[in-house]
Model the fold of this input.
Amino acid sequence: MNATPQDYRHLDVGPLLGNDSGMNDLLYVNGGNPLSGTITVRGAKNFVSKAMVASLLGETKSVLRNVPQIRDVAVVSGLLSLHGVQVEYSAADGVINLDPSAVESAHVAEIDAHAGSSRIPILFCGPLLHRLGEAFIPDLGGCHIGDRPIDFHLEILRRFGAEVDKREGGIHLRALGRLKGIKMELPYPSVGATEQLLLTAVRAEGITELSNAAIEPEIVDLICVLQKMGAIISVDTDRVIRIEGVDRLTGFTHTALGDRIEAASWASAALATGGDVTIKGAHQVEMMAFLNTFRKVGGQFEVHDQDIRFWHPGGPLRSIVLETDVHPGFMTDWQQPLVVALTQATGLSIVHETVYEKRFGFTCALRKMGANIQIYRECLGGAPCRFGQRNFHHSAVISGPTPLHAADVEVPDLRGGFSYLIAALAANGRSTVRGISLIDRGYEAFQEKLEALGADVSRG
Ligand code: EPU
Done:
């Protein structure tokens, strides 16, 4: 069941609601204007929500800064509030105060109603097992870009000593005594499973060792938060994370790292529209793989202390061969926005998606807009991946440049939705992009930012 903005109204998260104007859920985009100007990106969606969950583990208040006003933050705020955490958010300052001193069990029906379209609820397991000895986790939402199983998560929790009971509408978990540290190797360096293990191990008894862990910058920032809270965690260079469990954790004060997915999305928009955009809050170190690719395609950038400027230098863009991967590779979430820019590159580009098996569904609408994109089951252009033998259309060949023309399109998922905005901005004529509230999940004030960059957009 998906939560609507109304669902949050009784909670103290009003400023997070964002667009609730009652207007139609669509944006008209008059394409053809190069994006130009300066915008700011705040904290990373895929870190902020996890740090908020981590606050549950502390005995004292936490303060998180640089928090964007996006729907995923509202969903997590709602769930934390239901469990007795006092949440106060100031959208203008981007500061969220979290007081977990009165944590309590929530009613199943309410949890279900507040889970929204997010995957974050699964990360409540460890903290709730430590705080309350039990947890109910509703069926998860999230973007339809693959099957997105949670088998690694459940295996981790079972090994720590939790009883996992799948019920209609969700999963009930119970701690059989104090959770105990484990030694485990992930079959794949999953971001969520690594976070699950971290949030559970920090207060489990004894040592936990995870091999083949994900080491995304958002995970490292979560580890920094947990260390501030009193955890003992080391990260080795070979994807091994070791955690010494402690009895108590306190609150934290932390400033979230910037959203490198949002930054790369705007950079791709600058490239696809022939524009010039400076992104405050974008940082080189977390975006190195993207910057290399941006340069290979023919885009230019300039790194400054507080921002990165991205622009199209004029002339043709170059086709590339690209493979998505876990960090430090090219992020899967950068793929969809960049593919739109690749429709404007000369020659054949090959993109091999190795993180999600179904992340090219969004290309249907791009084809409708004039792009020439073919999808293949084979692993093209790189080493075979785990999807190669499984019949998934996970490689794309993009032939360009092709002029894009306006169309009426429906947002399929968060990043695919932003890609449609980029395509509509690059296209000739007036496009209608429907279902834009999905984009609110991860892009703060995107309409205002579009307008600030000179885009001709209006709500339906
Ligand atoms: N996987 C399993 N079993 C599991 C968990 C994962 O097979 O129990 C598989 C997935 O099906 C997928 C792969 O492992 O094929 C990677 O999934 P991962 O667990 O790393 O992804 P996630 O934690 O569900 C987060 C982000 C995604 C981002 C990925 C990869 C959040 C809330 N989501 O998802 O972000 O694409 O890591 O970096 O942090 C987005 O922001 O639009 C988004 C989809």
